[in-house]
Amino acid sequence: MSFQTGLSGLSAASQNLDIIGNNIANANTVGMKSSRGEFADLVASAIGAGGNSSVAGIGTAVASISQNFSQGNINITGNSLDVAINGGGFYQLTKTDGTTAYTRDGQFKLDKDGNIITNTGASVMGYPTDVTGATSSQTTQKLTIPTTAPIAAKQTANIITELNLDARAPIWNSVQPNTPMATYGTSLTTYDSQGKPIPVSLYFQRIDPANPPTPVLAGVTLPGVTTPATDQWAVYSGIDPTTAPLVGVLSFDASGTLSAVNTTFPPLNTATPPARKLTITPPQPSIIQPFDVSVDISKVTQYGVNFAITNLSQDGYTSGEFTGLSIDARGVITTRYSNGQTQKNGGMIALADFRNVQGLSPIGSGEYQETYKSGPVVLGKPTIGRYGELRSGAVEESNVDLTAELVNMMTAQRNYQANAQTIKTQDQIMSTLVNLR
Questions:
Q1: Which residue has the higher pLDDT, 423 or 151?
Q2: Given 3-state DSSP classes, what are the helix, strand and coil percentages for the chain, each rounded to the nearest 5?
Q3: CA distance 388 to 381
Q4: Which of 30, 33, 192, 326 lies 20 to 30 Å (CA to CA) from residue 300?
């Protein structure tokens, strides 16, 4: 009987060494989770033994190989497609054969079609999102980045201005020579529906409140400003300051705050607060239909300091090619384009979890498959509930403790030697019996 006992010990110690060796071999494997052998003793003729404590065991066997799913260290790589999970969850994958797998290895790539894949070619699954990053469906799909087609141009619809008009400036025609219109001016580039750049200039000219300009624009006569005002500035828009049409008159109170806006698009609005927008029409090439642009002037002030522009922006852009992407802690993919625009409609990486992760079946390459023991998959979003946050530009290192594994290897070696010694001793005893005469 001692031969079988020793053989079972040798087999168990050998399997233990295999497990330890696998841990050591994968000490640098991204997303690797260490394993350990769990052993159980074997007992012969246990039935009917009752409380008899003299029943000898017949050895040991590996009862289970369990994995340690504790968090690995986060290692910064700088690669935007490297993504580490800091906390609970697995990435959901669709393998090339159509089956579903799960992994903690976040070393992702882009294939020729813009699909986000793993090193084994499996597609990473996630939720579709709109341009703001909000999920548009709760059903996961393969994450695909539009790397080939450029994003369409957007026609300028709004301009935002933040500037100060110098309260010390004289009425433009009260001095000789008259103050040039370009003295208080600025310009920016707008875009038409085809993404063609159109330069637009804004000119500000201080005028006499008692004698406001009344030109005729598009068949509408600009009326005089009826609200009390300390100072007024006429606003012109065009390329050439000498021919730029008048688009409105700004009125300021004694504190330098905008108090009224007189404009032909639409007529004067005396509501409180006053309408704080002007409308301009950028000059157009002959093949493009003219379009109006709203100019937000709510943050225009008149203080006794130099004319200064703190913000001048617009919302149009030309078409742009894909240049790169980033992934935030919530798994939202933001794509970047050559026109300076970013969009968050690349999708959101989904995370999966299970009631019993020890029940997952490892299939190699750091991937696992769902089993009856693991329970059904539960999908969720990063940072919500039990799911961890994502770290782009980083990977989760193996959680193998190399020092502990080397000590375990020495212990397993001693166990192997000890079991071999029991066989050797039994052999010596058998030799003694055979040699009896």
A1: 151
A2: 15, 40, 45
A3: 9
A4: 192
The residue extents of the domains of the chain are 2-70+399-434, 74-151+321-396, 158-314
Amino acid 110 reads L
Mean pLDDT of 407-416: 90
H/E stretch holding 234 reads: strand 231-238
Q: Phi and psi for 57 in degrees, rounded to 5?
A: -75, 165
271, two tokens? 């509501």
Chain position carrying tokens 């806006």? 261
Total residues found in the chain within this entry:
437
Question: At which residue do the structure tokens 């700004």 appear?
Answer: 250
* Residue 85 parent element (H or E): strand 83-86
Of 34-48, 95-109, 334-348, 407-421, the one with minimum mean pLDDT is 34-48
Across 164-185, average pLDDT: 92
Question: Residue 420: beta bridge partners?
Answer: none
DSSP state of 328: -
Amino acid at 194: Q
pLDDT in tens, 64-114: 889 999 999 999 999 999 999 999 999 999 999 999 999 999 999 999 999
Nearest-angstrom CA–CA distance, 124 and 329: 17
Alpha carbon distance 370, 122 (integer Å): 16
Mean pLDDT of the chain: 86
Residue 393 and residue 79 in contact, taking contact as beta carbons nearer than 8 Å = yes
d(C-alpha 313, C-alpha 316), whole Å = 9
CA-CA distances (angstroms) from residue 114 to 215, 233, 325, 365, 403?
A: 56, 53, 12, 22, 41
Question: What residues contact 350, with CB distance under 8 A and at least 6 apart?
Answer: 91, 92, 125, 126, 127, 140, 331, 379, 380, 381
Task: For residue 127, count other CB atoms closer than 10 A to its CB.
Answer: 21
Q: Is the pLDDT of residue 286 over 60?
A: no
Q: Which residues contact 55 (CB under 8 A, 6 or more apart)?
A: 43, 44, 45, 46, 49
Strands 258-263, 246-252: pairing kind: antiparallel
Do residues 20 and 68 make contact, with C-beta atoms less than 8 angstroms apart?
A: no
Helix or strand or coil: residue 114? coil
DSSP classification of residue 359: G
Q: Is the pLDDT of residue 201 over 50?
A: yes
Question: Class for domain 158-314, per CATH?
Answer: mainly beta
Half-sphere exposure of 106 (CA within 13 A, CB side): 31
Other CB atoms within a 10 A radius of the CB of residue 7 amount to 16
For residue 243, name the pLDDT band (cuts at 50, 70, 90): confident
